[in-house]
Amino acid sequence: SLKGKGLVLANGEFGNRLIEQAKRAHLNFDTYKKEMAEPFIYTELEKIMATGNYEWLWFVHHETSTGMLNNLEELNILCKKYQMKLCVDCISSIGAIPINLKDVYFASGVSGKAIKSYTGLSFVFHNHIVKVNEAVPAYLDIGMYEENESIPYSHSWNLIYALQEALKRLEDEEAFEKIKEAYAYIEQAINTMGLKLVSPKDHAAQIVLTIQLNEGQCSKAVGDALALQGYIVHYESAYLQKNNWIQIACLNHYKERDMKRMLNCLQMCVLKKVLLT
Prior knowledge:
Blueprint: E1 6-10, H1 13-24, E2 29-33, H2 42-49, E3 56-60, E4 62-63, E5 68-69, H3 72-81, E6 85-89, E7 106-110, E8 122-126, H4 142-148, H5 157-168, H6 174-192, E9 196-197, E10 208-212, H7 219-228, H8 238-243, E11 245-249, H9 256-272
Parallel strand pairs: 1-2, 1-3, 3-6, 6-7
Antiparallel strand pairs: 4-5, 7-8, 9-10, 10-11
C-alpha cells in the first residue's frame, strides 16, 4: 500500500535496519540519516518534505539501540502538513509508554519486547482499507486478514492467550510509571559512577539505558562479568560491541534491592577497569 516515493529516517541501528527492509521490499525512497543517538532536526527535515517529492515517511519511534525516543507528535504534524503517509515502527514503544496512533497510516508492533508476552506474534495497525495483494505470501498479506475480518490462518493459541494475559497489565498506567521510576533510579547511579548515557537526556525514552563505557574497558568483558554474578544486561549484539556499549532495560518490575546489587556489581567492574580480554 506504499506507492510513490518515500523517506526513511535513521539515527540508530534499527533505523538502519528499516532502510535495509525498504530495499528488500523494493520501495522507492530516499533516506534522512543522522549519526547514532543524534536527534533529528525537524526544521531541516521539513525543508526536505516541503519539496513535495515524497508520499510517505517511515521511522523508528523508540530507537532502542541508543535509548532515544523520536518525536512521533512532531512527525505527525509535518506529515499532515505535507500530506504524507506516516508509518511508524513501534516495536519497542508499545507497552512501554502511552502512544496515540490515531493519525498514523501504518504502525508495527510485536508480542514480545515491552508487552512482555512470548515472542512470535507481529501486529500491523492501519487506519485504511488494505486490499489483497497477491504479490506477497498469503500468510503475510494484511489484505487477506482485512477481507476476512478475522485471522484467516492458524496461529498458536498459546501465543494468543499469553498476549491476552500480558495486555491486562497495561490497563493500569501504573505499569508505565514503574518503568520510569526504575529508569530514574538506575540513571542516577550510572551518572554517579561517571559513566555516560548515549542518548541526550532531553531525547531519552526513559525505557532502556544505553551506557558508553569508559576508554580501556570492554563491553563484552563487563557483560560477561555481570552475567557471572547473575545479572544479564544487553551487550552481545554486534552494534553494542562495536560501540563499546552495554544496555539495561527497565521493562521488568525490579525490586530496589536487586537493582542495588546489580549496580554495585557494575560499579566494581568500572572501578576494577575490566579490560579487553
